[in-house]
Amino acid sequence: MQNTLESRSENTSSVSQPGLSLPMQNQIHELAKTLPPPRKQNTACDACRTRKVKCNKLPGQEKHCLSKNYPCTHFVQQATSEKKRGSANVRRPRNLSNTGSRYNPVGSELTSDRPIRASSSTSPQSSKLTLPSDSSVSPPPSSYPSSPYGSSQFLHQQSVHQPISVQATTPQLLAQLFAPPDNHHSNGLLRVPQSPYSDWGDVAVKLQEEAFRAEFALDLVEVFFQIVHLRLPLLNPSLFRLRLNLEGRPQQSSLKPLHPALVATVLAWGAKFSEHPLLVADRRRPSGQSHLAKALVDRARDLAESMKVHRIPNADNVVIALLIEPLQNQNPDDPNGFHGFWLSSAIRNLLDLGINHKAVMANIQDADARGTMIFAWWMACLADAYHAVYYRRKPMLDDDDYDIDFYTADPVMQEAVETQISTPSPREQLEFLGYYRAAHALARIARQIARQLWRPATDSDGMNADVVVGFIAALSDWRDKYLLKVGVPSNFEADWDFVSVVSACASDATYQVMWVLLFNALDDFGIREINEVVRSGSPPDAVPNGQYELAKRKVADEALHSALRIAGLAGVLTTNGYLRLDSAVMHVSCIQAGTLLARLGRPEVSNCIAALEQYGAAYEEIGEHAVEIKRIYASASSGDFDFNHMASVAPKSNGTVVDSDHAMNIDPTSDNDSSRHSAPHDSFSLSIYGR
């Protein structure tokens, strides 16, 4: 028997590949291993099928649909299978055509593995959020248990993915934005009825009611204008409220409806800071984070993508992109984030619109529209420069890419007239105080530093000594010219409103952090002239490093003073709860200053840690930096200092700290209705570590 089996095996191997030698067979076998697997039919879930992506799981990653917070349902596949089983007993007529077509000449039925396409009525701008509208793909009603909460889970999930067009009414938009979370599942095998909103807290079930959705949306809009608009005045509050149209009633033809992605972005911003009972209940979890607020951020971003906000240049899309950028995750290493994407999209749209040309701006007749576009350019230009130097990236804009004095925007009189407020708008306040001009001057320095830090030659060779000296001179000149005007004064005894406080602290900290960034760059790259001598193998005394060490010590001293100054400002803002209301403006300064103080073993780092923990209420990822800074400080406190090229000048002792207590009475209610969401504003002492 064994001989028989062996002879059969030999015969099989000899005829399996006729005419091919054994080495050739092995090569073909190895080649076959590299070929892609056969195509699987009807395996993609509904969301992945619509988006035309693979519904599979890569090692160490989630499935594509789950990573995008889409439901992994297979209702299309189920319906197709039911249809095939129902017609299995019907003998299909032969295809008598000699053309080889896959279609039946009588009836022209498509085969069951045809791709699912969106309905012809679907807007091309909303295809990303669209599921097939064919009723044949709906699951049988008996497949889902009845629920005391109304519609089935599938109907809720399906409503999230209905197309949204520019003509969609606000009630239609709210129904989708506030639809239940996509990751809702029933409880176990018994399929116990459960509220589809249970992941968002006990109060979220009220979002099924249209009246409650409108009331909740109005609260989020008001929070946006009370908190976020003060820092990012890109919208006209009264005109936005007028165009919001929560009732969905027919409006005047002259009143343009709001862009759905703009409404979604404003609501997502409001959810970060609102103290509505629904969000308070949603935050009752160990992390203290609101799942609804996170979902609104993702849905606003997905809606903006589906409506091609990043690709179509117009004024609305510019504003939407600029508001989305600081709204989302602020960690540049987040694999699921889009750090800098929306900022670059806004700049491209602005350039396509020609906003960088003075002649184009002069042709915009409407003063409100012109002021908005000028401010949008200002915000994008400055954010591009600061973003580049913070993360060592190449800035998109150069100094000669524009010829407009964008920091002298026209006053926005429409807002004051409609609301009958005699006080200037936040945009005008910043202009009067000189913040635009000072910020532009600092942004030009930041742009120059960023262009040096991102260069591969700097990474490999180091920074040129003359360039470093030039940066020292430029930052010192800016301090002498602007800091006393736009920074926090040392002996200010007057009432400040919320805008003045946060603007002064942000301007002060933005300047101070430049020294910290320059210190970090020198520590990472070193000075090129010193590096060249060291790499050549010359003895240490051959390095003419006297002037170089002087420049390094100057940067180290300024960086220490700046980090202490930022820690003092952060302590004041944290004490009054202002960083809980900050729209991602001060976080980089707190992180950079805190990290440097922790590396130096300075106890003042506690102010930065507390500031970042308060930031974590709205930006979870920023709070995570506090944990890392604590670890660095613990290591430095034990004597483990981690410095490279700046080790010779880094101060490793607590040194002398100059305390200066200055009373500042701050009134955070700069707008007439912002007190409800403001932090306590009693008189307090400002302890800052300054010169």
Main attributes of the structure:
691 residues, mainly alpha, 27 helices, 51% helix, globular, disordered C terminus, zinc ion binding, nucleus, Carb_Metab_Trans_Reg
Structural category is mainly alpha
Strand and helix order: HHHHHHHHHHHHHHHHHHHHHEHHHHHHEE
Shape: globular
Proportion of strand residues: under 5%
What does this structure look like?
- This protein is an all-alpha fold and 691 residues long.
- Among the domains are: 153-307, no CATH class; 503-691, no CATH class.
- It has 27 helices and 3 strands.
- The protein has helices spanning 2-16, 22-34, 46-51, 64-67, 75-86, 153-160, 170-177, 210-231, 237-244, 260-273, 277-282, 291-306, 315-324, 341-353, 358-362, 367-391, 413-419, 426-432, 435-453, 456-461, 465-486, 498-525, 528-535, 546-575, 587-600, 605-615, 620-637, and strands at 495-497, 660-667, 684-688.
- The protein has a 3-stranded mixed sheet.
- It is globular.
- The N and C termini lie far apart (98 Å).
- Mean pLDDT is 75; it is low at 4-19, 87-160, 184-190, 408-422 and 654-691.
- It comes from Piloderma croceum (strain F 1598).
- This is Zn(2)-C6 fungal-type domain-containing protein.
Please outline what is shown here.
This protein has helices at 2-16, 22-34, 46-51, 64-67, 75-86, 153-160, 170-177, 210-231, 237-244, 260-273, 277-282, 291-306, 315-324, 341-353, 358-362, 367-391, 413-419, 426-432, 435-453, 456-461, 465-486, 498-525, 528-535, 546-575, 587-600, 605-615, 620-637, and strands spanning 495-497, 660-667, 684-688. With 691 residues, the chain is mainly alpha-helical.
